[in-house]
Amino acid sequence: MAKVSVPVSNEFCPQCLYLYGTYKENGEPNYGVFCWATYCWDEGLKFVACIGENKLTRDRIRATGIFSVSVVNEALLPAADYCGNHPGYDFDKSKEIPSVKGAVLDVPVPVSSPWTFELEVDKTLRLDERNESEIYICKIRNVLTEEGLTDGRSFEERLKEAAPVIALSTKYFPVKPEALGDWGQWKDKH
């Protein structure tokens, strides 16, 4: 099949959906939905988060240097979508997502998320002169997960229970817990 050039986009690039959690100055939880994230190795595994435009979540990360990053699952998706479409400056989102405090850092953790990182900003890379977009390279200070996801079941069974959501184009999709193979499985077949 022939390849053709198209406008720049990430339409067919799956992105994990995350809730970034901070506390507002009044102590109430604030969440924003983000998917511009990845990992890097810098003296250990680190989380890399990109935030563009003015957002209360970014303001609070700048002020405190800490935040939580929680995997959005199918149960959490309606509240996460609400948070992602209502600016924290204008809406009180604290009651949308039941939360507990982090175990190591003073960050909110959504009760319904299957996996949460408690993060401390290690390095900040500003991407524009207006300071509207920046990348945070973060130390993972703690990982919180549902106890049931640590048992001896197969990864596929635990993935089905966790039910993370990914974003493609402008849509949400479930993760189908059927493995295509393991890393290195085909290394000698070509």
Automatic annotation (TrEMBL):
Would I find Iron among this entry's keywords?
no
One GO MF term, please? Answer: oxidoreductase activity, acting on the CH-NH group of donors, NAD or NADP as acceptor
The family database entries (InterPro entries) matched by this protein are listed as: Flavin_Rdtase-like_dom, Flavoredoxin, Split_barrel_FMN-bd
| One Pfam family here | Flavin_Reduct
Keywords (alphabetical) are: Flavoprotein
List required co-factors. FMN
The Flavin reductase like domain is annotated at 14-149
Family, similarity comment = Belongs to the flavoredoxin family.
Q: What is this protein called?
A: Flavin reductase
Query: Source taxonomy lineage?
Result: Bacteria, Bacillati, Bacillota, Clostridia, Lachnospirales
